[in-house]
């Protein structure tokens, strides 16, 4: 099992910034992909950004140029720097990691979610 602890959410005014963190611990083999998703009530959980162990990054078009994902491999931690926040970024943000045990076996884990509210 892998445990994920998220932090950094909160209330911010439009145009402001927040930084989310997600630290993984437990039975870690290889976290070959780490990322962030978000969800608003009544809608599906959507991709925000992912980063692989090889440094390949993928962003949803809605956050390109405003959000930056990064990871500290030694600390098993993934970050999401969110700048120029908009009210439509308001959501619960979830950390997601893929823990690869071998070529045939991997498991995905989700964090508990952290609320981000962008409002004046």
Query: What is the share of helical residues?
Result: under 10%
**How many beta strands in the DSSP annotation?**
11
Oligomeric organization of the protein chains: single chain
Largest sheet: 7 strands, mixed
Straight-line distance between termini: 40 Å
- Rg, nearest Å: 14 Å
Estimate the strand proportion: over 45%
**Strand pairing plus helix content: what structural class?**
mainly beta
Description:
The chain has 120 residues and is mostly beta strands. 0% of the residues lie in helices and 60% in strands. The chain contains no helices and eleven strands. The strands form two sheets. Strands 2, 4, 5, 6, 9, 10 and 11 form a seven-stranded mixed sheet that branches. The chain has a four-stranded antiparallel sheet with strand order 1-3-8-7, with no helix packed on it. 30% of the residues are buried.
Can you give keywords for this protein?
four-stranded antiparallel sheet, elongated, single chain, 60% strand, 120 residues, mainly beta, 11 strands, seven-stranded mixed sheet
